[in-house]
Amino acid sequence: MLSKVFLGLVVSVGVWFSSFSNAQMDVQLAKRYGDEKGAYPVTDYLVSEKYDGIRGIWTGTELLSRQGKPIHAPAWFIQALPKGVWLDGELWSKHHDFQFVASAVTKDEPIDSQWHKIHYMVFDAPDYEHNFAERSQRYVRIVESIHTPFVKAIKQFTVPDNQTLSHVLDEYVKKGAEGLVLHRKAAMFQSGRSGNLLKLKPYMDDEATVIGKTLGQGKYKGMLGALIVEMPSGTQFKIGTGFTDEERANPPHIGDVITYQYHGFTKRGIPRFASFMRVRYPVKEPLVTKPSSVDKVSSTASK
């Protein structure tokens, strides 16, 4: 359907990216679908699989993380990417393989054998002049033009209603997907979080920074009891579930950014039933500490 709508749209790479390629890096971030439900009908969005990998922004000359830090990919990987164009995507290997990708991608010295398992899953070709429906057609053509097997264009599609969307989510999750992404077709590029870019998962999750640890009790004596974490808002709370025995013996470091899942919020704004999922962004120079028996978390933390 979209191919028919934009069949006559032919714009050169140079024109599309002339005003964007020299700009400071901006990144679009997804809000949760439930937070914006009803703001726009689901038919206003293009839908795609949400790949659980590491964000990679290609500026046309270098590959950067979501935080704007260089990703040290092998030379053969970088050389295959299209020069002079701005792409946004996810570095990904396969379903349920996030830890491998995170380990491979964050190394200062890349290991070829690891990178040969990684794909660059492209989901946008950002600029400030065209809406996402147009940009989605553009990034497909760019990816097809470079004939590189490890660079793939993420498929975008539409759904007629919320019931179908829920069914599609179930089907993708059964196949191993993390969830779905909804990107409003008429949306222009906008950095930060907005209702133009939404994520839909079978659970709620978020990120927080590790600021402390507490000692375990009973069978976990001498091991991690809970992490003390801080949300971007400054709210602090403890996460004491979701860890394997190995993770309790070798817990995340102070400064690590972790992902946790939860089920709504308390009246004080604390994530309810928060459970550890994984380290999302490991700190480069970890502070070596042992869990403390003294709980130093602020009064805003959950008990």
TrEMBL record:
Residues 1-23 form the signal peptide. It catalyses: ATP + (deoxyribonucleotide)n-3'-hydroxyl + 5'-phospho-(deoxyribonucleotide)m = (deoxyribonucleotide)n+m + AMP + diphosphate. Pfam families: DNA_ligase_A_M, DNA_ligase_OB_2. GO terms for biological process: DNA recombination; DNA repair; DNA replication. Its cofactor is a divalent metal cation. This is DNA ligase. Keywords: DNA damage, DNA repair, DNA replication, Ligase, Signal. Residues 132-233 form the ATP-dependent DNA ligase family profile domain. PROSITE patterns: DNA_LIGASE_A3. GO terms for molecular function: ATP binding; DNA ligase (ATP) activity. Gene3D superfamilies: 3.30.1490.70, DNA ligase/mRNA capping enzyme, Nucleic acid-binding proteins. Its EC number is 6.5.1.1. It comes from the Bacteria. The keyword Transferase does not apply.
